[in-house]
Known about the structure:
The structure holds three protein chains of three kinds.
Chain A (H helix, E strand, L loop, with lengths): L14 H5 L15 E7 L5 E7 L1 H5 L3 E6 L30 E2 L5 E7 L4 H6 L3 E6 L6 H5 L15 E9 L2 H7 L2 E9 L11 E5 L7 E5 L4 H12 L6 E4 L16 H12 L3 E4 L2 H7 L6 E9 L5 E11 L10 H8 L9 E9 L14 H19 L3 H8 L8 E7 L3 E5 L4 H12 L1 H13 L3 E13 L4 E8 L5 E5 L8 H13 L6 E4 L17 H27 L7 E4 L2 E4 L2 E7 H7 L15 E8 L4 E13 L6 E11 L6 H20 L29 E7 L16 H18 L14 H10 L7
Parallel strand pairs in A: 1-12, 10-11, 14-15, 20-21, 27-28
Antiparallel strand pairs in A: 1-5, 2-4, 2-6, 3-5, 7-15, 8-13, 9-10, 9-12, 13-14, 16-17, 18-26, 19-20, 19-25, 22-23, 23-24, 26-27
Chain B lengths: L6 E3 L4 H8 L4 E4 L5 H6 L7 E4 L9 E4 L2 E4 L5 H5 L2 H6 L1 H7 L5 H6 L2 H7 L6 H8 L2 E6 L2 E6 H4 E3 L2 E2 L6 E8 L5 E8 L9 E10 L2 E10 L6 E2 L1 H9 L6 H14 L6 H21 L1
Parallel strand pairs in B: 1-3, 2-3
Antiparallel strand pairs in B: 4-5, 5-10, 6-7, 6-10, 8-9, 11-12, 12-13, 13-14
Helix pairs in contact in B: 5-8, 10-11, 11-12
Chain C lengths: L4 E8 L2 E8 L4 H8 L18 E4 L2 E4 L12 E3 L13 H8 L9 H14 L5 H8 L10 H10 L9
Parallel strand pairs in C: 1-5
Antiparallel strand pairs in C: 1-2, 3-4, 3-5
Amino acid sequence: MAVGLVGTSVRRIEDHRLLTGKACYVADIVLPQMLHMAVVRSTRAHAEIVEIRVDKALAYPGVRLVLTGEDVRHLGPLPCIDLFPDSKPALHRVLALDKVRYVGEPIAVVIADDGYAVEDAAELVEVVYRDLPVVLDLGEAASEAPPALLYPEFDTNVANVCRQEVGDPDAAFTDAAHVFEETFRIHRYAAAPMETRGVVADPTGQGGRITLHTSTQFPHLVRAFLGGVLGIPESDIRVVAPDVGGGFGAKCEFYPEEVISVVAARRLGRPVRWIEGRQEHFVATTHAREQIHTMRAAVDADGIVTAVTLRSLTSNGAAMFTLATTPASISSAMLRGPYRIPNYRAESLSVLTNKTPLAVYRGAGHPQAVLCMELMMDRIARDLGIDRIDLRRRNMLTKGELPSDRGTAIVLAGKVVYDTGDYPGCLDQVLELAGWDDRLRRQAEARGEGRIVGLGVACFVEETAIGPYETGHVRVDGSGKVTVLTGASPHGQGTATAIAQLVAEELQIPIADVTVRHGDTDVVADGVGTFASRGGAIAGAAARLAAHKVREKAVLIASELLEAAAVDVAWVDGRAEIVGVPGRGVTLAEIARRATAWNSLPAGLSSFNLDEVAHHQVPGIAFANAAHVVEVEIDRDTGTVRVLDYAVVHDSGRIINPMIVEGQVHGGIAQGLGGLLMEEIAYDATGRPLVSGFQDYFLPTSAEMPDIRTGFMESPTPLNPYGMKGAGEGGTTGAVGAITGAIADALAPLGIRVAGDGPFTPPAVMALLRARGEGVGA
Amino acid sequence: MKPAPFDYESPVTLDDALALLDRPGACPLAGGQSLIPNLSMRRTRPDLLVDLRRVPDLRSIETNAGTLRIGPMVTFAEAAASPEVRDACPLVIEAIRHVGSPAIRNRGTLAGNLVWADPASELPLVAVALGAVLTLRRRDGEREVAAADFLLGAFECAIRPGEIVTSIRFPVAGPGARASFAEVSPRRNAPALAAVAAQIEVVDGKVRAARIVVGGVHPVPLRLTAVEVALEDAGPGTDLPDLGASVAKRAVGSLPDAADYASAVVPPLVGRTIASILAAS
Amino acid sequence: MGTDTREIRVTVNGAPTRSTVPVRLLLSDFLRDVLGLTGTHVGCGQGPCGSCTVLADGDTVRSCLMLAVQADGMEIETIEGVAAADGTPHRIQEAFREHHALQCGFCTPGIVMATVGLLRRTPCPSAAERAELMEGHLCRCTGYRNIDEALAALSGAEPRGEH
Lengths: 778, 281, 163
């Protein structure tokens, strides 16, 4: 019955509660005596705080408490975990102290009896500012003489520099037949999950123990960070990630509200709730992507790229958040993607600017890297008159060249050693799926008719399933039902289903007999969380390892119950049977009951209970790969870009549930498409963001999405006991490169060179067309 | 994201409503689809909300003596489903397809939309194109204002404190009238960057009563009379879409303060709307 | 909260309710905080996202764009009323699960309610009518294709090939 569950499209065990209104997101939590918090945020991009007047707010009916930076001066800043020793610790404080560095920075909080009054009172907090010069432009911020220093004590706005050095790039450039240089500009946008962030901090536990309900991707890390900032033991803190309405990296950060709500709750002895508003979300939750990459490529006479150098700047905003270096680190470590390019040098600066802090978003630095590399490949092909597919094949690592130590490293994750994959095979398969030759022919016809049609292709390799480890705890109780406790903290991915598949298959039981619990640090003692395409692969492996141990233990117990040698006991359909004597067996429930502490310890066992814990310690990064092909058409009259067709072949190792992986790919593509065509967080010259919610930050709708054909390859990784890699981010990573490549291809015959990622809104594309004398308005 | 405090009344007669609206800081509430999010964002802070939902007779749609009259509480969904509107003003139907999304159209009213005077909104173009007349009533009187005079700028209209729209009147289109509405936006269901409302009567291959109004070029709808005249004067066999587009290009190109993008895309959109009308004729 | 209150009578999922509420209370907060029906989610409070969609007298509305007092006398239907009383999922809910038309589930109740409203009026909606429904709903997880397939299946259409 359960044999062969892995690899099938089992429908999700999460869905029933989500579809019937029975899910519990953080905003759904109601506790007795709960109070409401509002955050007073900076309206200035860079200013000294001269004075904060709170008396009017305190006098407002229903207000219980107002806290400012002075009240939490003694608390340390929020940690950034990917800083390395040479970094400038430009860390975010819980509440601003003396100075604000971006619009939206928390200055004070107001706590009141209800969610409406607290907003009334927050408006009454008066902040007197003395404005300072603002630095928004990335190049200026990183320059020798920036218009402003966010942290004068560091004497620079550069928080750190990630360096990569492989081979001898200087020699390669000296010998190069051709040298290409391009500067790519990547704009700022955001993850924008449908559920904003929120917290409920409950100080009413035993002995004042704290429970923090928070919409996060990594509750165990929040527990550690919170304990660190408050200086209290982790055992005094329980963190719960309830149902979480999407995260995509934005909730893989530790935020000031997760601290200040707890401070206020402890002060008042009552639960405190804060739910981020959508308008607030666009200043208070981390942004993503904004980078400038200056890239040079050395190419020999045969079109072999012999070396690449990169200097990149990342606009990290006003402070280094939890995973702030990662975008710069990944984009520099992974720039070369599937291409050999034996010589490489990168220098990637994380730069402080007067904007909302920027950190990871689905793909972290990969999308930017793929965009730059693939646009560069297309440019080399075009300029040298080489077919772009052929050029890619000439430079692509083959299956036989793997594993391949790439000579680079990613902060936190470690050395980049490509493990498995068939990159040329993946490209071949997607070209077939897309009907590439046919599309080329039709593109030529369309161009003959004056239409602006482009084809894009993006091949990439992607860091997934990173460590350090994940936990799995499988427990069978006397009912014979199985509970899995996982350290992953899924928030839409369907990881509970995937884990249930793995465990049900191992124990050969119906999936309905498996319950997966996650996201509560009191239930799951140890864990890491869900990010970096790691949940299914790493937590899945840990859970399956634990299930395997449970099964081995069950066989031992059964052998005693059946009075048979363990070697004579077989595991069949979720029960232990004596080999050759069908019908003579014991059920999982019977075995579990025998193992309880109410009985004597079964022979050969050192512990009671049918209950095992496993840690999957990750030996190294598993690298997924994929190839995307996309067709776009640009309306010459309006500048509207329409994505017409999409094909993707994705290799994330052994697949647990193809339906779920395909869903991840679809969703990832939609996010890539949105970022390229319509999403942007722009700032005015004073540093005020021009986005105030979903009425002016446009997520894609169903109407903009093309049909997507998805193919799979499975190259198992030896780094995972079951061969699994991660699949969460590849859709986005590939889409950003492929769609930009298609737009660039569409515009190339018009003499328009694309060196960035837009966003390609109708006015932006029209401006490109008109600058070249194309388009009606010219 | 919670409204600031206000007082609230839901009067049951128009006179009571107008008396309440005469108070300082009073604001009428019709469908609320623009007003309520702005209350929640605290961009609008009335002292008193006067909810018109219980006032009788504000929901009627009627055609009389060549005039379609739409009451102030008529929603987009009701107008779109109305045979009277379909027959009398096909352009209204065409434009409503682009307004918000179904749930917004179920609550949002045509009158409220005009009063909100959003430059990216569709109905103002239609009202100007068709020469709609609004009746504005206050406690002590009533006045009539043509749509073109009513819309003053981005989010600015001629309504005065204490007034509400009690009707929008559209002239009934002549026989053979066809309409088309086209717009460009960053994505489906996002504010228009540029838009064209067109209505033409085509009788025996000849254009009559052309109405071409464009949005996005100026903060208020811009009527392209030159295009209308050119279409009506065109001889047989003229490529009307092409003519419309080229005249529109000249007309828009000569304007000071024209928005760059909209000026560029409005001419081909004019051509498309005309082509679409001719295809349907 | 503002001091001005009103008594309202609203029928919610078939059950009459009577409450005294502040006049500025949004319908979404009334459903969630006063009645405890937290299946209606607020994704933006500004109108575009559609997560908070409920049926009011049978019409889809944004509950974040109505005041609770405006619902006085109305019949409101929320996601909690969609499955059968014994918990058996509605066929819309079944189709969404079957087609993997949801991931994080935050936007899902709004889309399900809009679908309930559409199918009640139009049992076999066309592709254009289904597209019109989806104009009003943002989903950040699924990329929409599976939602479209679920809607197509519910309409008796072939999941693909109707474009």
